[in-house]
Amino acid sequence: MYLGNFLGSKGRWVLSALLICAFIFELAYCQKDTQEKRNTPGRKPKPIKPKLGKSTKKESRAVTAKPKIKATAAAQTVLTQVLNRGKFKKVGETISVQTGDTMELRCRGKPVQWGVPRYLEDDDDGRLRIVQHQRYGVLTLVNTTGADTGEYTCFPMYCEDTDCRKEYNKAVKVFVFFPDPQELFVPSSDYYKAIHLRTNWPTLLPCQVTSPEAKVTLHREFPPMEVAVDGTEISFNVKRGFTIHRPRPHHAGPLFCVASLGNLRQSSTTYMLIYVNYPMAPPAPVIQASSNSLVVGENLRVSCSVVGEQDVVVEFTWEYPGQEIGRPLYTQESVTPTGGGAARQQSQSVLLVDEVRDVDQGAYTCTAMNLQGAKAVSTSVKVVKAKPRKP
Ligand SMILES: *[C@@H]1O[C@H](CO)[C@@H](O)[C@H](O)[C@H]1NC(C)=O
């Protein structure tokens, strides 16, 4: 087999797996399995199962009920790499292309749209070319460098007359490494980057390498030390960088990545991690007036309170009837810890109106805001004339 020879022995194994796949299931499901096996050649191949993640319920039923018919329909998106002398290779999750070489990807669909790394989208220096043929689209990138490393996506388009939209569920992605012998990290325009660490929100340190073979470690600047990467609290993905899954205040500070390959060792941009107490949800304020019906001359007190996580700042703003005529009201704000085991606090704003007048009648609205959002609550207050004193 010509193609088999070309791919080599590992490739031949992959190819036969692909062929079996193509007969039984949609290729899109199998490709991932095949790629996984190629990455771990020592592992015993597990039985090929269809991956149903990207399909709709209807499709998955079709796969199990009539697999052979579905396979011949071949409606799935197929992304191939065009190698020199017109040979094609179906791409897996990742491919490596030598820097300086031309990368050519071909994707079946009429038409297709392409997604490229952000930097290529922004600086069009004429190296990227996209051509749509009758049945497929071609993306060509010439004079490649390590900076081109990233995700390339083909989106088949669904068109009705001239109105086209991307079919996101049929998109095919490939992560392309351009191993650069001089640059182990994908160059970044910043030497220094501030990243907010939010409580319980995964944070990414995007130190991306140009070669999948590079060994990457995480380091703290002060005091200088390597940060343990256990795969749970902090994990590494060669396509994305390091992720801190549940940030805590102790993760804050300057961090950087170090990549080594052969006798080359390089440091990434420094990431300044700033810890922010980030609430889980927008505040849920409760408003209460000292009385909803007052006699002219009485004092009014409207309180707005929020119970939330400790050290999360809540800002209050008020709207009230006397606002338009510039009635000078004043507010008192306070934060008090609430009882109980959980670290919670009550934030409160109290609006005070001395000696109410007719103009103070109406709706009092308090808006409470934290980093997650804002919520407004209202209460209405009636002002009545003083009753004539009875003799
Ligand atoms: C690619 O590099 C060659 C050789 O340096 C140069 O002549 C050519 O203009 C470059 N092509 C593009 C599109 O930048």
UniProtKB/TrEMBL annotation:
InterPro entries (alphabetical): Ig-like_dom, Ig-like_dom_sf, Ig-like_fold, Ig_sub, Ig_sub2, PDGFRL
Segment forming the signal sequence: 1-30
Gene3D superfamilies (UniProt xref): Immunoglobulins
Compositionally biased spans, kind Basic residues: 40-55
Stretch list, region Disordered: 35-61
Keywords: Signal
Ig-like domain segment(s): 282-384
Segments forming a coiled coil: none
Complex and partners: Forms a complex composed of PDGFRL, TNK2 and GRB2.
PANTHER family for the chain: PLATELET-DERIVED GROWTH FACTOR RECEPTOR LIKE (PTHR15360), PLATELET-DERIVED GROWTH FACTOR RECEPTOR-LIKE PROTEIN (PTHR15360:SF2)
Protein name: Platelet-derived growth factor receptor-like protein
